[in-house]
């Protein structure tokens, strides 16, 4: 276990701290309040801060694909998945594609093809959905992959991504997607930012949607403290 207390940590050090092992890997990244809330007034932004955004940016730079639920794309107002010139150069120098691919999980294809995350994406996004949906106008802005009959088969979806060379997957949620990935045993790592706030009752947790199953043990890899935010990294 590696502990850095306190920091701040320079970006090259963050890159080393958050590197993933070779081969397929699914990392979750979330922020929560001290009392376990995953949002304030429906959004995660009030729990974040400058240090969290630095880690957030590094994790995006390191991944092949960013997987999010359709509800998170709508509620958080996702923009096109772009990186600055330095981070694009780092990716090219390290054998990665210039931009990660945005992947949206949507059981109903209830997405607006004009939303910036889709319409202005630097590389064609992917939408994972279940059978029986009509892609309609979405087919003009994204690759639609059907995996599953009654619900999206996340294991099959990840296999489809890896078949396209997208091995290192980062997910930013939302809670239902996190719950489904956990229930399917697909989560390799959780990066959790703990905000120094008490959100109070009513706000949901960072995971939702599935009944409790067998607890899964993850090992603490490091602890960082910056900007009064606590950064925890746990992995298989």
In short:
The chain has 236 residues and is α/β, with parallel strands linked by helices.
What form results from the Cα inertia axes? globular
CATH T-level fold name? Dihydrofolate Reductase, subunit A
Which CATH architecture?
A: 3-Layer(aba) Sandwich
Instruction: Kindly give the count of domains.
Output: 1
Mean pLDDT: 92
- SSE order in H/E notation? EHEHEHHEHEEHEHEEE
Given this structure, which CATH class is correct?
A: Alpha Beta
Broad structural category: alpha/beta
Instruction: Give unreliable regions as ranges.
Output: none
DSSP helical segment count: 7
List keywords for this structure.
single chain, 236 residues, alpha/beta, Dihydrofolate Reductase, subunit A, ten-stranded mixed sheet, 7 helices, 10 strands
């Amino acid at each position: 276990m590696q502990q850095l207390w306190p920091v701040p940590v320079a970006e090259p050090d963050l890159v080393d701290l958050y590197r993933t092992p070779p081969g397929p890997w699914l990392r979750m990244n979330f922020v929560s309040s001290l009392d376990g809330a995953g949002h304030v007034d429906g959004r995660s932004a009030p729990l974040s801060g400058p240090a969290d955004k630095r880690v957030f940016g590094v994790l995006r730079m390191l991944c092949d694909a960013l997987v999010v639920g359709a509800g998170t794309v709508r509620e958080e107002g996702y923009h096109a998945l772009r990186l600055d010139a330095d981070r694009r150069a780092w990716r090219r120098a390290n054998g990665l594609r210039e931009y990660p691919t945005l992947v949206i999980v949507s059981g109903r294809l209830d997405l607006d093809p004009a939303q910036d995350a889709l319409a202005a994406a630097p590389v064609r996004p992917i939408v994972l959905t279940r059978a029986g949906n009509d892609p309609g106008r979405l087919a003009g802005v994204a690759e639609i992959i059907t995996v599953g009959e009654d619900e999206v088969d996340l294991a099959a979806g990840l296999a489809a991504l890896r078949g396209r060379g997208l091995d290192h997957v980062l997910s930013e949620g939302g809670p239902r997607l996190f719950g489904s990935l956990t229930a399917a045993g697909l989560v390799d790592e959780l990066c959790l930012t703990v905000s120094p706030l008490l959100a109070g009752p009513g706000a949901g947790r960072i995971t939702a949607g599935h009944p409790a199953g067998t607890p899964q043990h993850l090992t603490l890899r490091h602890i960082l403290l910056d900007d009064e935010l606590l950064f925890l990294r746990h992995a298989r």
